[in-house]
Design brief:
Layout (H helix, E strand, L loop, with lengths): L15 H8 L4 E2 L5 H6 L12 H5 L1 H13 L4 E3 L7 H5 L5 H29 L8 E7 L1 H5 L15 H18 L3 E7 L2 H13 L6 E5 L13 H8 L5 E7 L6 H11 L3 E5 L5 E3 L4 E3 L6 H13 L4 E2 L7 H11 L8
């Protein structure tokens, strides 16, 4: 299959995300692992709701983690709604209204943390920071199932395009209404869910820029085994998707995938891999392995930037210290614009 470039109405007119990246010096830093950072502060996440449980029980911990990443230099913070779904909350005995309010809270906690932090920065006139954007996290259908299928793409014969759109629709509506700057569709494992997201954004006439990130288990294809060329072919026809990339994959896979995505799309490329440790989605535990420390992560991130990635951060098991190292390394020699 040849190079897949999407049509653009105006090649010279940047969108909100592109303008923000330019102000950030050409590469913006996303925050890092959320659930594991919550856990380090005593948050309980060993639950099908994962980090979303803290939205119910300990929202102050979520605010604290957002603040830690802002202080570390994150230009974009991602809401704690990855595993926050209406069916998931209802299954815990909450009403539809309560479930929707919790989803809204996930965005409000992030925007409040951002706004409060920015007020303090403005007082000091510290030009090393940007006023961060807030991305509302939207996990894959597999994340809701909590069975590891976001890393296999195997949703079964009964899951079709319409079922995936129905699953995502109300959560998307609620999160959009809550007022984030961006939408982050994360750990998408197959072409079918990609198609569902693209169609849903059109049907709902969503005006907020979105990114779609895939996981990968082999460093070559989507978890389903489908090629990224096939998946990105769907994305390249959409004006709603501003960026595409990889999250929650081992760092050693990223460089070659950035190069591949550069050949397949003109969308902004976003990458935020995990620490290199391996998550067993069925056993619900991290498997022993050699992880990448902050210094190694910083060196790799510089290579990803130089290869064309413009949004870079960390996923599971990365920490504020990882993001601080990224921010210093990626912005070395330049001052962020406000």
């Amino acid at each position: 299959m040849g190079v897949l470039f999407e049509p653009k109405l105006d090649e010279n007119k940047p969108g909100l995300l592109e303008e923000f990246i330019e102000k950030a010096g050409g590469c913006a830093v996303i925050d890092g692992g959320f659930a594991t950072q919550l856990e380090s502060h005593g948050g309980f996440i060993n639950d099908p709701l994962w980090s979303a449980l803290c939205l119910i029980d300990t929202p102050h911990l979520i605010s604290n983690v957002h603040l830690e990443y802002l202080e570390a230099g994150a230009d974009i913070i991602v809401s704690s709604s990855y595993q926050a779904t209406i069916p998931g909350f209802i299954s815990r005995g909450l009403s539809l209204e309560q479930a929707e309010k919790i989803l809204e809270k996930s965005v409000k906690l992030a925007t409040d943390a951002r706004d409060g932090f920015w007020k303090s920065v403005e007082k000091t006139e510290d030009h090393s920071y940007n006023r961060a954007l807030v991305a509302a996290s939207i996990g894959s259908y597999g994340a809701y199932l909590a069975d590891g299928s976001e890393y296999s793409g195997n949703y079964g014969e009964n899951v079709d395009l319409n079922k995936l759109k129905d699953f995502h629709r109300r959560r998307l509506q609620v999160l959009v209404k809550a007022g984030p700057d961006l939408l982050a569709f994360e750990t998408i494992p197959n072409k079918l869910e990609t198609q569902a997201i693209v169609e849903l954004l059109e049907e709902e006439i969503v005006q907020i820029p979105s990114w779609i990130c895939y996981s990968t288990v082999d460093g070559v294809n989507a978890p389903s085994g489908e090629s990224f060329a096939d998946c990105l072919e769907v994305i390249n026809t959409s004006e709603k998707i501003a960026a595409v990339g990889i999250n929650c994959a081992p760092p050693q896979f990223v460089h070659s995938l950035v190069q591949k995505f550069n050949e397949l799309t003109r969308k902004v490329i976003v990458v935020y891999p995990n620490s290199g440790e391996i998550w067993d989605g069925i056993a619900k535990k991290w498997l022993p392995c050699k992880c990448f420390n902050d210094d190694k992560f910083k060196v790799l991130a510089t290579n990803w930037r130089d290869s064309g990635a413009k949004l870079i951060g960390g996923c599971c098991r990365t920490t504020p210290s990882t993001i601080c190292a990224l921010s210093k390394g990626l912005k070395c020699g330049s001052l962020a614009s406000n």
